[in-house]
Design brief:
386 residues; alpha/beta; Rossmann fold; 2 domains; seven-stranded parallel sheet; 35% helix; 18% strand
Length: 386
């Protein structure tokens, strides 16, 4: 099939989760034999060129402003009439719609990839402002869902309640299980802390990702007299200065800053425990539920790391308690530090890490994600044309 994938607010190549997602899905669908054209914001050195099976086209939003995405709609509509794709897949954005609104005009299957809430969370200031002018944004977002023949999402809770269940395909993000594995090697731009057990956090330094909570847990372990546990924190973001200040004087904590994704397999392989200390209370939209499909968790698991994360509903489904990791009560004082202490046992880490790797390969690979997409496209196309 010919597939056009519009993700013009995502920079590819890039280091953020959305960038990794777009690149992996486009390449994964191409690997299945599809003719894939992907519309993205080019990276610093332009669109991907080396060893790629995807036709990458740079179509960044005007002035780099994602809320101006729809200004690209005429250009993309013209491209659709030339390419005549069988499937048009668009990565959802509040101000998007540049591709999916034109899909039906060429008879293409319309697929909306939804990774962020379409509905407003309780108390949303955006919803209050929208209501003052008869909710145009809410109506627009709901229209995008109505136009979709398939909605791909990790959580139905972030979709309009009236969305027909037959259109929804619940799919998790994934990991490149061939690149992320326990024996991955490569030159690293940091040195592993000189401790028996090293934890790793990889991701955005924003309050709800909880990087600072890992540092506080290490500080608590120091108060308990434990010097055998260190941490590597990989990433960047607005919380980095606070995390750096919290880590001052603790010792055996390495802050690397953002790293190229090509470095990440070796970076995770040098660690012993993968930590994802999400703080739901620090991000109001998460009152809708933990709707993320956490890339870091799947890459930890693929790397053979036992996962430590809060025992919240969706996480309990993604990581088996004491099967692939240890999930702690985020409301209990010292619970994160306790979980890390338990995993200083090398036999326990080996047991949980092996199970995590096995599950990642089976359930959370990008290859599995793309096979599920392929199946959804093939199932829906006859119904779409009927």
């Amino acid at each position: 099939m010919k597939i056009l994938y519009s993700a013009i607010d995502q920079t590819v190549p890039g280091t953020k989760g959305g960038s990794i997602h777009v690149a992996a899905v486009a390449e994964g669908l191409a690997a299945l034999g599809h003719d894939v054209t992907a519309l993205i914001t080019p990276g610093r050195d332009g669109v991907p060129r080396a060893a790629t099976r995807v036709r990458w086209i740079g179509v960044p939003p005007p002035l780099g402003a994602t809320h101006l995405r729809m200004a690209r709609a005429p250009q993309i509509a013209r491209l659709l009439t030339v390419l005549r794709p069988d499937v048009v897949m668009e990565r959802y954005h509040n101000f998007g719609g540049e591709a999916i609104t034109a899909a039906r005009s060429i008879g293409a299957l319309a697929v909306l990839e939804v990774n962020a809430p379409v509905v407003d969370h309780p108390g949303s200031r955006k919803a209050i402002l929208d209501a003052l002018i008869f909710r145009p944004m809410q109506r627009w977002r709901e229209r995008l869902c109505t136009l979709a023949d398939i909605i791909v999402t990790p959580s139905a809770a972030i979709l309009p309640p009236a969305t027909p269940s037959a259109r929804i395909r619940l799919l998790e993000w994934g990991a490149d299980t061939e690149r992320f594995h326990p024996n991955a090697i490569g030159k690293l731009p940091f040195e592993r802390p000189s401790t028996a057990t090293v934890t790793v956090f990889a991701g955005a330094f924003r309050a709800w990702h909880g990087a600072i909570d890992l540092v506080r847990a290490i500080r608590e372990l120091r108060r308990r007299g434990r010097q055998d546990i260190g941490a590597v924190l990989i990433g960047d973001g607005p919380e980095l200065p606070r995390v750096r200040a919290e880590a001052a004087g603790v010792g055996k904590i390495v802050l690397t800053g953002a790293l190229p994704h090509d470095v990440m397999p070796a970076a995770l392989a040098t660690a012993d425990i993968g930590v994802a200390p999400f703080n739901l209370s620090a991000h109001a939209p998460l009152s809708l539920g933990f709707y993320w499909s956490p890339l870091k968790v799947f890459e930890y698991m693929s790397s053979g790391l036992p996962v430590v994360a809060p025992a919240i509903e969706r996480m309990l489904a993604l990581v088996g308690q004491r099967r692939e990791g240890i999930l702690y009560d985020p409301a209990a004082p010292g619970a994160l530090a306790d979980a890390l202490t338990e995993l200083t046992s090398a036999p326990l880490r080996a047991q949980l890490g092996a199970a995590a790797r096995e599950r990642a390969v089976r359930d959370y690979s990008w290859a599995a994600h793309c096979r599920a997409l392929d199946s959804a496209f093939r199932d829906a196309r006859p119904n779409r044309s009927a």
